[in-house]
Amino acid sequence: MWDPPLEHPLRRMFAGLTEHAFFAHLGVADPPLIDYLSGLLTRFVHYDEVYRLRGAMGQPLTELAEMVIEAERLPAGGRTQTEYYRHIGDFALFWTGLFPEALERLRSRVCKDAMVSYTAQGKRGYLMTSRMEEQQQHDAEAELFRRLSEQFEICAIGLRKVREEMHELPTPPGGIIR
Fold first, then answer.
1. How many domains does the structure of the chain reveal?
2. N or C: the chain end with fewer CB closer than 10 Å?
3. Which helix (H) or strand (E) covers residue 7, if one does?
4. 157 vs 40, 71, 96, 97, CA distance in Å?
5. Which of 49-53, 155-159, 162-166, 169-173 has the lowest mean pLDDT?
6. ∠ CA 28-29-30, rounded to 5°
7. Does residue 173 form part of some domain?
8. Do residues 94 and 43 lie in contact, with contact meaning Cβ atoms separated by under 8 Å?
9. What is the pLDDT of residues 70-100, one digit of tens each?
10. 123 is in which domain, residue-wise?
């Protein structure tokens, strides 16, 4: 998993945008939650990170339904199963929050994800992660993932605000493609 240092420019940018969106627009002042979400945005800049889970044959899992099926096949309580459920929550929140229009288009396609509730599966993924972290006595992590599950919809709205604020950023000299 790509996890850049706190000083990395992208991480700092996402941290500022996330903190502002959640505090100014939603009144949510939860530093661990905001740090997690800004880290998620930073990690998911890389395509390989978004689709990092692999199936039994080593192929990347690109649909949420496939990720859930694969997670259920793994031995219970293992680190890998915890990582799968965490990624399910992250993947669902990323798409629900930043690209809800893509999920709407999914419903018109013939694929497994056409009938999947990203919100329900994201909440479940974080709840399962919370329970597994609790069993391993990682209390702070368990609490964070429990809040992500309970506040999934608010987090998705907050990520939409981050997206809006990203579009309002001035283009730096030399430009970037948005």
1. 1
2. C
3. none
4. 15, 27, 9, 6
5. 169-173
6. 105
7. no
8. no
9. 999 998 877 799 999 999 999 999 999 999 9
10. 9-166
